[in-house]
Amino acid sequence: MADLLPDTRRALRHRLAAGQSRGRTPSVVAAVVRDGGPVWAEGWGTVDGGVPDGDVQYRIGSITKTFTAILVLRLRDEGLLDLGDVLDAHLPGTAAGDATIGALLAHTAGLAAEPPGPWWERTPGALRPELTDVLPATPFVSAPGRRFHYSNPGYALLGALVEKLRGASWAEVLRREVLEPLGMRRTGLDPVAPHAAGWAVHPWADVLLPEPAQDLGVMAPAGALWSTASDLARLAAFLLDGDDRVLRRDTVEEMCEPRTPEYGLGVQILRAPDGRVLTGHTGSLPGFLAMLAIDPEERLGAVVFGNATTGLDVGAVTADLIRIVAEREPHVPEPWRPLPSIDPELLALAGPWYWGPSPYLLSPAADGFLELSALHGGGTRATRLRPDPDGGWTGRSGYFAGERLRVERDASGAVTHLDVGTFVFTRRPYDPGAPIPGGVDRDGWRV
Question: Could you give all domains of the chain from N- to C-terminal order, each with its CATH number?
Answer without folding.
Answer: 6-328 (3.40.710.10), 344-425 (no CATH)
